[in-house]
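Example 4.3 (complexes with small molecules)
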Amino acid sequence: MNLFGFDLRWTAPETLVTVEDYRRAARRRLPAMVWSYVDGGAEGLETLRDNREAFSRWALRARMLAGNGTPSLATTVAGVPLSMPVLFAPTGFLGLSQWQGDLHAARAAAAAGTRYVVSTASSWSLEEIAQASPEGHFFQLYPREGDIAAKLMRRAWNAGYRTMMVTVDVPVVGNREAERHTGMGIPPVMTPRRMLNIARYPGWAINALRHQRIGGRNLVNGAGIAAAVEAAEIQNRQMVQATLNWNDFQWMREQWKGKLYIKGILDPEDAVRAVRIGADGVVVSNHGGRQLDFALSSLEALPGVVAAVGNRAEVLLDSGVRRGTDVLKALALGARAVMVGRPYVYGVTVGGERGARGVLDIFRTEMERSLSLMGCPSVEALDRSWVVPRQAGT
Ligand code: FNR
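Answer. The structure with FNR bound is encoded below.
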């Protein structure tokens, strides 16, 4: 229902059937500025599109009368037993979509038997998230110069995080043109028209207010934009450093006693180098098509990285995963598990913890049903023999 420009529709997460349903419902709840940040990509959106299209180039093998019963989705990542091979990728500023977004995402992941990777740019602090959900989530680090990185690593370790992902595909922030069109930024560039657009979302505006930190104190318990880092340090998005190199990664390996993953790898040679330095895992990712436009889609990049790494490290994949069958294809091509970014952001936007749970339920039921239809007993059994290059529809 639309009343004087206000969209009054309420959507119960349980009525949504697909991740795309969540996407549409989330879009209705967020001002254009925030939506451009959540859903946008770099420049011509070529990689964003390729990330999806790459999945449609593979068909799944189907074997009948396998008699397997309910397929098993259980696996481990970084030695942590998971009920399904889908984790929540790190997303910064989740509080812009739902003021308690990080807490909801962490609790939803834990309740479903998986893990949330907490971003360096999280809206709640590492300690607050660990307190709300003490199951042992993972920590994502944007590599910064020594002392800041060391401080963040110490904080993460002390708060109980034992697996760290270092994101290396942001030497500079990608050219997200939709954000520039809407004025999204820190601080946002406001015009009367943009203010009017935001005024159409009173529910969101209340959320945003609850999320503010004033004079070092939170307006409402706990939160504050980018509380994970010392707030001043990440202003102007100076989380990223164009001068960082492999020596810095080596230094991080020496500093971090837990499991270490490198996130944002597309090139097999980079993967090999990371593993030589001692990475326990590699995340094949193009940051959801938000960084280099015309970077290779992550699914296309996956087989090369898997072949180069062998069984010396775990290979994860993210960027463009929206369906249970996408997960199965990535696993068949050698990934141990996948991460999803935007899907759970839609989830928390629509329904907080319930919404994020709803998104994981969709992935779980889609994977179980498809494995049954394929005649495959478990995600562990998936290998290259379960996918076939697809002719139809390409
Ligand atoms: C991200 N991503 C990201 N990655 C990271 O390492 N640190 C971060 O703070 C963020 N922030 C962030 C914000 C938003 C709104 C999005 C959508 C993404 C990238 C993220 O971890 C992941 O690589 C992609 O989201 C995966 O692609 P899909 O699943 O969104 O298609």
